[in-house]
């Protein structure tokens, strides 16, 4: 038998987290999943051969898992201390559990006669259990304690502790058909295939049990022994190899694997696992392509027969998607009325005692409440007693004051634009409490977004930011990266590289460098308006999952032990390394800093040239003094602190420059075998060496202030701080200090703010380059605090000060002063290739060209400044809204529903092909869609799947780059409700480039905005959105409404028509009638004197529904739609309305 199997990288998650033996393994028959049981009583699912950790659930007890069997619908498992056997769904929810009075010793696979399996207890009971419900079908006595049960065709096989193999009738479970003693001291493994039985077990030698070196083979029908299979290493596990007749896999405890044909033992192959301990479990995949072996250290070793270049699922085929941990069902909707009982809300499930259930031990022995107030004397004077009941009339002076406490209206915590006119934003600056240095100042406290009935768009972000520098919103998963984005944005070399990268033809669908560039462009254009980094945060989550970096993912459910300081420093290193990889075009990287003379090697990645520390490690053997050098490229430096506490004496090496220098030139020792003197475990001393001139333009530091001792170095001393605005650094060459010194300036840092309750969040303190000139003019500092969307100016002393424990440094960025003018970015691309608007990008394999409605731009049609385009987008829901229902019946939105772009359509706004779409892309997404919102989006299942979609399907980044190009070229976007569309798309469009028909047809005093459907019915005399929404139809309607607006303005009747529109809208409740109707003089207005229909528009100036061939106007705005005037917008009032 030729060798067909080879080793692949093992799954080491269990070993790296908490080493414990893998006691049981099982491959899922229908999905790409490997189920494992560990020694602590937990079942863990690993998805794909890469071992992505998935669902985990306890079986019961804290001892090992005995057996796992996965079926098509559930997973059955039993543990040593579980006192029963149960079934769980693939998502980890328990379906049933049979609890036994004695321990379950083993259970079998399902019977071929029905949904029944068998289990044996330590009390020698053989149970037939319904696999769907867990009910006992039959219970019969067992001859011995069965340690193995196997359902073979028409027979139930059992292996017992006395070494016997028995066959039973599965219909009765009581009668034994045949029995034979296979081993002297017990059965260790039992398998059946066809008419053959294979057993391994223990024999006796000199009165002691020892592994039997033979695999016994028997005929199922007669229990007649057949020639055994020898295995001198001692078999510990035996498995049947599917797809091969009479082939078995024998494994020793030392990791020797023998794949052998039992009918011809010469036909075999051997493999040896690299096992430092011993094997504790084994399993074979349903197709025989994979074999898995667990060891006592928690490692799962994988062996595969697949080609090294191919990646096959564990089950051998494309199965159903993975089931992650099941989320609780949504609560039923309750129609709340005055008669609705409060108990219809129900109580949440809980498995621990409620806090309201106080025991007597928690109650004080003395008075538990204040005594009742004394009865006034004037009442006692008139009191009468009847049948031990005292009563008196209430005096006039006491009337109206009983059971009344002073109160004041509750102050709303949320600040909304809809209530801005009813409140004052002014707040007193004088503190009303005693100063506490350990209390977190108000500006540094965590800010939360409140949600009104109008959604997140109603939140007044402007109250928290009165500067020209934009903050980032927080209601997004992984938004803890906001502070890191602000640091990157205000570090000018990194900003320049990010802007350049989005102009390249990057082929990665999930690229952090591209998303960083898009955020940079958005922050540049916003100029103080709040922004969102939703696309960047989504890519962070995708890459963290792909690299199995769970510690980088933030699920928005923080606890007191959630340390964002650790998190942001790990993300900082991951981000910079990823940017270096994604931006590397070796060997075509341009030199940003002029290279030294006589350099022939290509330049490193641009990020590496800006932020990389190219040092070398000098390693010396202390025994023979042999010296060797090793290159060491680092992007992020972890700060190392002296062991002794700070003395505030720079000569002692505790000042900021000395700590940075010792971290750069880190000295370490280790033991290894010296290749020169061959001494075993020789001591080596290692130290980094770097010249001052080789220090990078940007020095990125992780503060690593994780302990109280390290944080003491940062605490302010007497009239001095550790952190300085500038720091002077010197390198070291071969142990000798470099006489040249380099001056660095502090550009920004990320600070972890820790409250007294040990909850933390991150803020950025940045020296804004644009603020250095502006600050000199108005007397303000150039330092700014970015607390997510709250931004304020602070002094330099406040930024550098660490006066209390609540302020913990995490990331520091320093800029080299002498390289600011030397960095040369001219070789980098700086403009997006406009030809992408002329390209039809599609990744769908089943696109139907007959339903394509768009026609890409021709090169001569490329838009210029002022070009009109109509746009509309459709979205799908990726996460449901999270709400909290209070005891008074009110509802509070904790986290709004998360939506993702599903379709975007952009139409020509002028020219002969006016109204013809040149972008109509459906957006591919790899995330799970929880609701397609078909009624409002028109998107159905399969429309966003590359294998099923009949439409033009495009990656999100390609579509975003097209929209980014349209914004950069100065296009004017026409649409209806564009503010929400642009927010979800995550792009900022300057207000002077947006014409929103919601604002055009709006009277501020009426406080009601009109729907596109109603406007189209009333003004254009068309019924749209009759069944579902279509983005082309909506964009076309908005464009025609815009043309109609200009027609009314040119005639000078727009204000009059707008008043009539609101009057008639009130009559129809601002909705079109249910029956198709066209507004006219007889239906929409009772005025008999009107001879013409309302809003009659010159048809020559309206957009015709038929698409006309021709060219797209390069000027953007057709002159035929306006009254004669020198300006294309003469006396327009739509922006001020």
From TrEMBL:
Residues 470-817 form the USP domain. Keywords: Cytoplasm, Exonuclease, Hydrolase, Metal-binding, mRNA processing, Nuclease, WD repeat. Binds 2 metal cations per subunit in the catalytic exonuclease domain. Its cofactor is a divalent metal cation. It is an enzyme of class 3 (hydrolase). Forms a heterotrimer with an asymmetric homodimer of the regulatory subunit PAN3 to form the poly(A)-nuclease (PAN) deadenylation complex. Catalytic subunit of the poly(A)-nuclease (PAN) deadenylation complex, one of two cytoplasmic mRNA deadenylases involved in mRNA turnover. PAN specifically shortens poly(A) tails of RNA and the activity is stimulated by poly(A)-binding protein PAB1. PAN deadenylation is followed by rapid degradation of the shortened mRNA tails by the CCR4-NOT complex. Deadenylated mRNAs are then degraded by two alternative mechanisms, namely exosome-mediated 3'-5' exonucleolytic degradation, or deadenlyation-dependent mRNA decaping and subsequent 5'-3' exonucleolytic degradation by XRN1. It comes from Hermanssonia centrifuga. InterPro entries: PAN2, PAN2-PAN3_catalytic_subunit, PAN2_N, PAN2_UCH_dom, Papain-like_cys_pep_sf, Quinoprotein_ADH-like_sf, Ribonucl_H, RNaseH-like_sf. GO terms for biological process: mRNA processing; nuclear-transcribed mRNA poly(A) tail shortening. This is PAN2-PAN3 deadenylation complex catalytic subunit PAN2. It is found in: Cytoplasm. Its EC number is 3.1.13.4. It catalyses: Exonucleolytic cleavage of poly(A) to 5'-AMP. Gene3D superfamilies: Cysteine proteinases (3.90.70.10), Ribonuclease H-like superfamily/Ribonuclease H (3.30.420.10), YVTN repeat-like/Quinoprotein amine dehydrogenase (2.130.10.10). It comes from the Eukaryota. Belongs to the peptidase C19 family. PAN2 subfamily. A divalent metal cation binds at residues 872, 874, 981, 1034. The gene is PAN2. It holds the Pfam family RNase_T. GO terms for molecular function: metal ion binding; nucleic acid binding; poly(A)-specific ribonuclease activity. PROSITE patterns: USP_3. Residues 401-429 are annotated as: Disordered. Its main location: cytoplasm. Positively regulated by the regulatory subunit PAN3.
């Amino acid at each position: 038998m030729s060798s067909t199997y080879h080793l692949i990288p093992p799954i080491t998650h269990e070993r790296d987290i908490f080493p414990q033996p893998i006691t049981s393994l099982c491959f899922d028959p229908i999905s790409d999943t490997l189920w494992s049981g560990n020694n602590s009583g937990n079942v863990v699912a690993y998805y794909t051969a890469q071992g992505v950790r998935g669902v985990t659930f306890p079986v019961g007890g804290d001892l090992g898992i005995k057996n796992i069997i996965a079926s098509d619908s559930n997973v059955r498992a039993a543990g040593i201390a579980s006192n029963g056997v149960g079934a769980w769904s693939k998502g980890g929810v328990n379906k049933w559990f049979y609890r036994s009075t004695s321990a379950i010793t083993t259970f079998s696979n399902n019977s071929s006669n029905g949904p029944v399996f068998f289990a044996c207890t330590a009390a020698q009971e053989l149970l037939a259990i319904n696999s769907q419900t867990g009910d006992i079908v039959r219970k019969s006595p067992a001859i011995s304690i069965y340690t193995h049960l196997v359902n073979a065709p028409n027979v139930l096989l059992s292996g017992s502790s006395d070494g016997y193999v028995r066959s039973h009738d599965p219909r009765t479970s009581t009668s034994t058909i045949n029995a034979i003693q296979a081993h002297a001291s017990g059965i260790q493994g039992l398998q059946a295939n066809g008419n053959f039985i294979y057993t391994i077990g223990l024999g006796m030698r000199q009165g002691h049990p020892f592994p039997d070196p033979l695999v016994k083979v028997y005929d199922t029908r007669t229990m007649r022994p057949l020639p055994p299979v020898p295995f001198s290493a001692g078999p510990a596990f035996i498995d049947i190899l599917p797809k091969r007749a009479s082939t078995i896999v024998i494994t020793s405890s030392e990791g020797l694997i023998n794949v052998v044909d039992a009918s011809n033992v010469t036909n075999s192959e051997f493999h040896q696992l690299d096992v430092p301990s011993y094997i504790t479990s084994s399993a074979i995949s349903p197709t025989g392509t994979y074999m898995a072996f667990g060891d006592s250290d928690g490692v799962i070793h994988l062996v595969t027969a697949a080609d090294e270049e191919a990646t096959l699922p564990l089950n051998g085929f494309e199965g159903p998607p993975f089931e992650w941990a099941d989320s609780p069902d949504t609560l039923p909707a309750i129609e709340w009325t005055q008669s609705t009982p409060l108990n219809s809300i129900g109580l949440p499930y809980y498995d621990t005692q409620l806090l309201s259930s106080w025991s007597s031990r928690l109650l004080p022995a003395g008075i538990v409440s204040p005594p009742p107030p004394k009865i006034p004397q004037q009442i006692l004077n008139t009191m009468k007693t009847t049948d031990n009941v005292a009563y008196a009339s209430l005096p006039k002076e006491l009337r109206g004051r009983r059971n009344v406490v002073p109160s004041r209206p509750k102050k709303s915590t949320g600040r909304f634009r809809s209530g801005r006119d009813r409140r004052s934003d002014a707040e007193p600056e004088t503190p009303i409490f005693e100063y506490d240095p350990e209390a977190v100042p108000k500006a540094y406290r965590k800010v939360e977004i409140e949600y009104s009935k109008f959604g997140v768009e109603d939140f007044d972000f402007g109250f928290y930011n009165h500067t020209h520098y934009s903050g980032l919103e927080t209601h997004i998963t992984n938004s803890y990266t906001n502070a890191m984005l602000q640091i990157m944005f205000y570090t000018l070399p990194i900003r320049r590289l990010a802007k350049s990268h989005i102009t390249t033809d990057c082929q990665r669908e999930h690229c952090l460098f591209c998303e960083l560039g898009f955020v940079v462009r958005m922050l540049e254009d916003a100029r103080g308006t709040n922004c969102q980094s939703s696309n960047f945060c989504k890519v962070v989550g995708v890459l963290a999952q792909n690299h199995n970096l769970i510690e980088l993912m933030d699920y928005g459910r923080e606890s007191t032990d959630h340390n964002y300081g650790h998190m942001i420093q790990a993300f900082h290193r991951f981000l910079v390394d990823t940017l270096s990889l994604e931006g590397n075009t070796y060997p075509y990287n341009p030199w940003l800093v002029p290279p030294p003379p006589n350099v022939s090697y290509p330049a490193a990645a641009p990020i590496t040239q800006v932020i990389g520390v190219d040092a070398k490690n000098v390693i010396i053997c202390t025994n023979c003094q042999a010296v060797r050098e090793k290159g060491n490229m680092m992007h992020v430096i972890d700060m190392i602190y002296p062991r002794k506490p700070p003395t505030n004496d720079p000569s002692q090496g505790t000042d900021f420059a000395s700590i940075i220098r010792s971290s750069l030139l880190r000295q370490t020792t280790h033991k290894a075998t010296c290749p020169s003197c061959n001494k075993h475990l020789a001591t080596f001393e290692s130290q980094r060496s770097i010249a001052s001139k080789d220090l990078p333009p940007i020095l990125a530091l992780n503060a690593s202030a994780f302990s109280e001792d390290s944080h003491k170095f940062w605490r302010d001393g007497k009239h001095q701080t550790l952190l300085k605005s500038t720091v002077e650094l010197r390198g070291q060459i071969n142990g000798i200090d470099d006489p040249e010194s380099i001056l660095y300036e502090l550009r920004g840092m990320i600070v972890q703010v820790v409250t007294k309750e040990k909850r933390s969040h991150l803020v950025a303190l940045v020296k804004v380059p644009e603020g250095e000139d502006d600050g000199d003019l108005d007397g303000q500092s150039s330092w700014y605090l970015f607390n997510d969307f709250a931004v304020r100016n602070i002094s330099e002393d406040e930024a550098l000060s660490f006066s209390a424990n609540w302020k913990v440094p995490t990331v520091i960025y320093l800029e080299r002063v002498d390289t600011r003018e030397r960095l040369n970015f001219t070789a980098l691309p700086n403009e997006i290739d406009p030809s992408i608007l002329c390209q039809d990008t599609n990744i769908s394999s089943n696109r139907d060209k007959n339903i394509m409605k768009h026609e890409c731009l021709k090169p001569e049609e490329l838009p210029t400044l002022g070009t009109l385009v109509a746009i509309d987008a459709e979205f799908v829901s990726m996460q449901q809204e999270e709400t909290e229902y209070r005891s008074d019946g009110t509802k509070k939105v904790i986290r709004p529903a998360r939506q993702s772009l599903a379709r975007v359509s952009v139409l020509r706004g002028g020219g002969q092909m006016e109204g013809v779409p040149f972008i109509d892309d459906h957006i591919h997404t790899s995330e799970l869609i929880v609701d397609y919102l078909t009624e409002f989006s028109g998107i159905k299942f399969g429309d966003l799947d590359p294998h099923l979609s009949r439409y033009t399907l495009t990656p999100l980044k390609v579509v975003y780059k097209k929209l980014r190009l349209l914004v950069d070229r100065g296009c004017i976007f026409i649409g209806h409700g564009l503010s929400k569309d642009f927010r979800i798309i995550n792009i900022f469009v300057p207000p002077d480039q947006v014409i929103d028909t919601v604002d055009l047809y709006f009277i501020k005093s009426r406080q009601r905005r009109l729907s596109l459907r109603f406007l189209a019915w009333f003004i254009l005399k068309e019924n749209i959105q009759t069944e579902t929404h279509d983005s082309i139809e909506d964009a076309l309607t908005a464009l025609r409404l815009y043309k109609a607006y200009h027609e009314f303005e040119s005639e000078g009747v727009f204000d009059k028509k707008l008043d009539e529109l609101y009057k008639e809208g009130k009559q129809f409740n601002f909705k079109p009638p249910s029956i198709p109707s066209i507004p006219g003089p007889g239906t929409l207005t009772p005025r008999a004197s009107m001879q013409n229909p309302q809003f009659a528009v010159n048809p020559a100036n309206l957009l015709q529904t038929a698409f006309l061939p021709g060219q797209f106007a390069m000027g953007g705005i057709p002159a035929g739609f306006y009254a004669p005037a020198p300006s294309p917008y003469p006396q327009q009032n739509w922006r001020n309305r």
